[in-house]
Design goal:
The protein is mainly beta and 136 residues long. Helix content is 10%, strand content 37%. The protein binds FE2/S2 (inorganic) cluster.
């Protein structure tokens, strides 16, 4: 394999990850629909959310003053921090009031009764597209 081939295989692997990169984070039964829990994986605090039967993971740290998001409230796909009510879309990590801010997200897999998380941050959300009144 050429150097470029080896390099591209490393890049593809680092983005998509491998099965070994996922670690067990929780039991699926511990996160019923509409609920969230906080777990510790190594040195990282992770919040797991069940949004309509699909599991999402973010860092369990509000970007404002570092309060655990899992202590807040989950409504639909929006978690509201209990301390000062900053809100995040857990499916994208985007802060709903401050588009330039996001919370780190992680890839999740469900394997039978287990929820697995890969502790490599997913790309940040797309910045919002602003529409000029001239475009409306
Ligand atoms: S610490 Fe979360 S809103 Fe202030």
């Amino acid at each position: 394999m050429t150097v470029i081939g080896q390099l591209s295989s490393v890049i593809v692997r680092s983005y998509h990850g491998s099965v070994e990169d996922f670690v067990k984070a929780a039991k699926l039964d511990d996160i019923p629909p509409g609920r969230m829990i906080g777990v510790r994986i190594g040195d990282e605090e992770v919040a797991l959310y069940n949004v309509g039967g699909r599991i999402y993971a973010t860092r369990d740290v509000c970007t404002h003053q570092y309060f655990p998001l899992s202590k807040g409230e989950l409504r639909g796909c929006v978690v509201t921090c209990a301390l000062h009510q900053w809100r995040y879309d857990v499916t994208t990590g985007a802060n709903l009031e401050r588009p330039e801010i996001h919370v780190r997200r992680y890839e999740v897999r469900v394997d039978g009764p287990s929820v697995l998380v890969r502790l490599v941050p997913l790309p940040p959300p797309e910045p919002p597209k602003f529409v000029s009144r001239d475009d409306a």
